[in-house]
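Technical annex B. To support the medicinal chemistry partners, we prepared a structural model of the target in complex with adenosine monophosphate, based solely on the information shown next.
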Amino acid sequence: MKECIFCKIAGGEIPAATIYEDEEFRVILDLGPASKGHALIIPKAHYANLYEMPDELAGKAMILAKKIITKMTEVLQCDGYNIVQNNGEAAGQTVFHFHMHLIPRRKEDNVGVTWTPGKLKEEDKQEILEKFSLC
Ligand code: AMP
Ligand code: ZN
C-alpha cells in the first residue's frame, strides 16, 4: 500500500515515537492522544481492518496489547486502560490500516470513550438471537 501512512510508519519510512517493535508490529505514541501515553499497535503488513486480519495475527495483537498495557500501567502509574479498535468509517475509523488504541485512564480524567446506555428491546433481542444462530 504505497500511500498508506501507517504502512510508512510501521516500515520506518516516516518517523514516529516507537515504544515497541518486533518483526510483525510497531507500537507508537498517538500524535493526537486522548490521554498521556495513548499508543497505537500497528501491524507491519497492511490490513484495512480486523475483518481482513488473519486470525493468528489478530490474536498476537491482543497478546501484545496485554504486554504493553501491563508495562505501561507500571511506568505511568495509571488506574486503568481502554483498548479501542475502530472498524469502518461509521465506527470512527480514520486511518484504514488496522490499529489498536491503548488509552491509559486515570480516575476522573474525563476521557470520552463512553456512550449513553440504551435499553435492550425485546424485538431486537429476538431478531439477533434468531439471525445470529443461523450463522
Ligand atoms: P482511528 O480514528 O481509529 O482510525 O485512529 C487513527 C489514529 O491515528 C488517531 O488517534 C490519530 O491521532 C492517529 N494518527 C494519525 N496519524 C498519525 C501519525 N502520523 N502518528 C501518530 N498517530 C497518528
Ligand atoms: Zn497500510
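Notes passed to the chemistry partners:
The first strand starts at residue 18 and ends at 21.
Helices lie at 5-10, 55-76, 122-133.
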